[in-house]
Amino acid sequence: MSDLENKLSIIKAAIEDKKGIDMEVLDISNMTTIADYFVIVSGSSSTQVTAIIDEIESKMFLAGFDKVNKEGYTSARWILLDYDDIIVHVFHKDEREFYNLERLWSQYERNNN
């Protein structure tokens, strides 16, 4: 298993452990150089959103993977974890519906193919 596959597996397991809602893994490697994957998931409350983030950070740290950046933790509405080749977006469910990143990236892909 490559480091990338291992990271993705750890992140998905952490999200599942905290009962993340509607997880989507988008392969963006052919669309941009910012990352290979976006992982997008929702939480039903600010408490669940931060619990998902804390679980991902803990499991990734234990596996020896450090994040590059974290944004939005204090608001707990849209938190981003950057693991260089994987960017994790954990949304409060209301924010996810508003921003709809999946739609934006699918439109980008359609327009550039």
**Distinct helical segment count:** 4
Poorly predicted segments: none
What is the rounded distance between the termini?
A: 30 Å
CATH superfamily, by name, is Beta Polymerase, domain 2
Radius of gyration: 13 Å
Task: Quickly give the CATH architecture.
Answer: 2-Layer Sandwich
Report the CATH topology name.
Beta Polymerase, domain 2
How large a portion of the residues is in β-strands, by DSSP E? 25-35%
Principal-axes geometry comes out as globular
Find the count of extended strands (DSSP E, 2+ residues): 5
The level of helicity is 40-55%
- Main sheet properties: 5 strands, mixed
Q: Estimate nothing, just give the exact number of structural domains.
A: 1
Strand order across the largest sheet:
1-2-5-4-3
Order of helices and strands: HEEHEEEHH
Return the structural class.
alpha+beta
**Could you report the average pLDDT, rounded to the nearest whole number?**
91
